[in-house]
Amino acid sequence: MVRLGELMMILELHRQGVPITAIARRTGRDPKTIRKYIERGIEAPVYGPRSIGRPSKLAPYLDYLRERVAAFPDLSAVRLTREIREMGYEGAYTAVKRFLAAIRPDQQPRPFEVRFETPAGVQAQVDFARFVVTFDDEPATSRIVWLFSLVLGHSRFLFARYVLHQDLQTLLRCHIQAFEALEGVPIEILYDRMKTAVTGEDDQGHIIYNRSLLALARHYRFQPRACRPYRAKTKGKVERPFSYIRQDFFLGRRFRNLEDLNAQLIEWLDTVANVRVHGTTQRIVAEAFADEQPELQRLPEHRFDAVLKLERRVSHDGFVAIGGNYYSVPDRTRRVVEVQQLPDLIRILDLGTVVAEHPVLEGRKQYRIDRSHRPGGSGKRRPHGSAAMTIGRIGDHVPLRSLDIYQAIGAQLATGGRP
To answer: Tell me: the pLDDT tens digits for 204-227?
Structure first.
């Protein structure tokens, strides 16, 4: 097919008297083709209809993609490609990405960012992100949950858990869980100025860290670092995963409760997030972590066992209120007790003697009862937790009644009477 520019050259050479055979040699065309276009003159070439190729592999899934993006505009192209592949799609990811770019709302261009990389084993980044969820167990209530995330700066390996609080005890517990999952500790951890990590600055502008966080850092031998104010981009390696988790995992799913939410999150981390090819490093995250893990510092011989100490009063029905939950103590415990809050344990002391130990309860308005603390037991103290129970789920109301009522009911049942 002769284009317009080449046609103009042919006609000009012919006007100058150049023979057709010479024009054919110069253009590489057949003399018959040259003669045809000279006879046609300046008339523009006529192109025939383009032949229709095979139907797009993406076509059967376009309506599904439109519906998903309409319901959840932030779903990632990676996740939607994974979903339609499970439905039978065999085409390319780039086709899905182009289609989604065309149907999403226009986004303003973002400024360029200066990227920095860290050597293996040197740095991790930690933060909390706020999520709102409605659990199937509580369909009438929307709850705020917090996502704790620790990302290794070199390999981008991701540890994450959802929790109901972002208090100090939760922060310490999540650190310990992350270190044990990684089987090691980075040299430094970068934080934003969350109140549980940073309490302020001194007169010279030096960061003042929470004393309990410093105790944790000394135990595990890492150096806490706070990013500069209003420079959250310093922590991009952990803040980008929050968006990734929201788009690729959280949106469009249903969760029965917090336990189910974390179970699904762990499965997604193991089967998707930590086995993908990372867009920046261009390495499979799990393989990069396998190279980085030996560079992490070893775990100490013992778990962190520092405590937060406070005083609490024992209620008339034998409970101590801690963090919005209630933990039992034995009969005849003094009215004022010392409470030691470990990252994953509540320890209650009466005049320096440990009288109760309970695992930390998530949520609020839950009751943890060691049955050996109550009348009618065997009289011998059993190991804590061996005869314990938790009553009250999140949102349940547990009425407070005198223990004499329960004792009377138990006596009637024991003698065959009706309560």
So the answer is: 667 788 888 898 999 999 999 887
Give mean pLDDT, residues 140-145: 92
Residue-wise pLDDT tens digits, 239-282 = 467 888 999 999 989 999 999 999 999 999 999 999 999 888 88
pLDDT tens digit sequence for 65-113: 988 888 888 888 899 999 999 999 998 898 898 888 878 765 555 554 4
Residues forming beta bridges with residue 158, ordered by sequence position: 151
35 burial via Cβ count (<10 Å: 0-12, 13-18, 19+): middle
Instruction: Tell which residue, 132, 114, 75, 101, has the closest CA to residue 248.
Output: 75
Q: Which residues of 90-109 are buried (b: 16+ CB within 10 A; e: fewer)?
A: eeeeebbeebbeeeeeeeee
pLDDT given at position 22? 83
Within a 13 Å sphere around the CA of 158, how many CA atoms are in the beta-carbon half? Answer: 29
Beta bridge partners of 207: 201
Q: Is the pLDDT of residue 13 over 60?
A: yes
Pairing of strands 308-313, 388-391: unpaired
Phi, psi of 196 (to 5 degrees): -75, -15
**340 three-state secondary structure:** strand
Pairing of strands 123-133, 188-191: parallel
- What's the CA angle centered on 125, arms 129 and 291, to 5 degrees? 130
Among the residues of 336-402, which ranges form H helices?
A: none
Q: Which two tokens stand for residue 278?
A: 């990372």
What the block records as the tokens of 238 is: 């952990």
pLDDT tens-digit readout, 302-315 = 888 766 777 889 99
Ordered alpha helix ranges (H), 72-195? 77-86, 93-103, 168-182
Distance from C-alpha of 375 to C-alpha of 27, rounded to nearest angstrom: 107
Say whether pLDDT at 398 is over 50: no
CA dist 280 and 277 (Å) reads 9
Rounded Cα distance, 300 and 216, in Å: 11
Which amino acid is it at 228? R
Instruction: Give yes or no for a contact between 129 and 242, defined as CB atoms under 8 angstroms apart.
Output: yes
Residues forming a β-bridge with 128: 148
The bridge status of strand 388-391 relative to strand 367-370 is antiparallel
